Amino acid sequence: MILQTLFIRQTNLKKIINCRLFSYYMKRPDPCSSLCSKHNTYILHSSNRSVASDSSVTFPSWFMALSNSTPVAYAQQFIISFHEFTGTPWWATIMLSAVALRLVITLPLTVFQHYNNSKLENLSIEFQPTVVEIQKEVVKAVKLNRWPENKAKRVYNKAVKKYWNELIVNENCHPAKSSIVVWVQLPLWICMSVATRNLTLMLPPSEDAVIRFYELTEGGILWFTNLTAIDSTMCLPIIMCLSNLLIIEVQTQSRNKEPTRNQKIIANVFRGLTIIMMPLSCFLPSGVSLYWTASSIYGLSQNLFLLSPHVRKCFGIPKTPYNNEYPYKYILDKTKSKLRIS
Fold first, then answer.
1. What would the 3-class secondary structure string for the chain be?
2. Is the bond into 279 cis (omega within 30 degrees of 0)?
């Protein structure tokens, strides 16, 4: 049912593109219209009636609101300016602009995330002896004051939480700081995706938009030469899906520490979202799928890059007992063991 709905939307999308293209030029005065015969004039009017009938297909209001938003406009202008400045073909523009933004914006934030997480891991190790001492003090208080079990738990949890909060404040490594990557990368990814989609839909309508649309129809490479059409081979969605799954596996397999229950749940949720995204991307223009694929491949490369002990040392990321001296070999051996490959 979902695939059928997406197919209908893709069909309507082609109609809208044709309607926008025809209606744009129909509105422009034709200097040779006075020389046209009655037969040609009738054809023009017939075409206008056809466009009017097809133009009843519209985008959802939420999509138009997002498409016309200021952040998307800035993202779209960035892609256009990048294309004009570098002079690269559109397929290279989409890929290089994605990598450039990730390098300039998300790489420093990801380094900071690793730095903050490493400090938290070292603090949690140092915190364990203190937890044991607090537990002993609570046990003594229970025997002396005959506290009920509920009160003992409440006092213990309050003391542990208070001491932990003091530690993270003194070390300036609050766990919320590690989530800054998500709050920046997700809106950036959405804006760039919608901006790329705008280019393939001639939005907002203008003469330049039509010119760029024609450039995009021939601006691809390899099997996706038309960036405004869907990838009929489904290679881009598959590559994107595999890259995202590899990112999740690299993050989970690179640790020599057993993941917590919450970490397992989060990993499974992201695996599910990745699989859901693949059929959705099959019905998007190749330009959008290309952006998603380029962003995913860069994300995988960045995760592998930041595993290197030498790179982590250069960025000043503290070493923790959970880091491996040979991370790539460790991931390979762990994967072989999981797949039972000798």
1. CHHHHHHHHHHHHHHHHHHHHHHHHHHCCCCCHHHCCHHHHHHHHHHHHHHHHHCCCCCCHHHHHHHCCHHHHHHHHHHHHHHHHHCCCHHHHHHHHHHHHHHHHHHHHHHHHHHHHHHHHHHHHHHHHHHHHHHHHHHHHHHHHCCCHHHHHHHHHHHHHHHHHHHHHHHCCCHHHHHHHHHHHHHHHHHHHHHHHHHHCCCCCCHHHHHHHHHHHCCCECCECCCCCECCCCHHHHHHHHHHHHHHHHHHHCCCCCCCHHHHHHHHHHHHHHHHHHHHHCCCEHHHHHHHHHHHHHHHHHHHHCCCHHHHHHCCCCCCCCCCCCHHHHHHHHHHHHHCCC
2. no
273: tokens are: 């979202």
Kindly tell me the sign of the dihedral angle through the C-alpha atoms of 215, 221, 225, 231: negative
The pTM of this model reads: 0.76
Distance separating alpha carbons of residues 197 and 199, to the nearest angstrom: 5
- Angle, CA 108 vertex, CA 102 and CA 109 arms, to 5°: 90
pLDDT per residue rounded down to tens, the chain (342 residues): 444 444 444 554 454 445 444 444 334 443 333 333 333 333 333 333 222 233 344 667 877 888 888 999 999 999 999 999 999 999 999 999 999 999 999 999 999 999 998 998 888 888 888 888 888 888 887 778 777 878 888 888 888 888 888 888 888 888 888 889 989 999 999 999 999 999 988 888 888 888 899 889 988 888 888 999 888 888 999 999 999 999 988 888 887 777 778 878 888 888 888 888 888 888 889 999 999 999 999 999 999 999 999 999 999 999 888 877 888 888 888 877 777 765
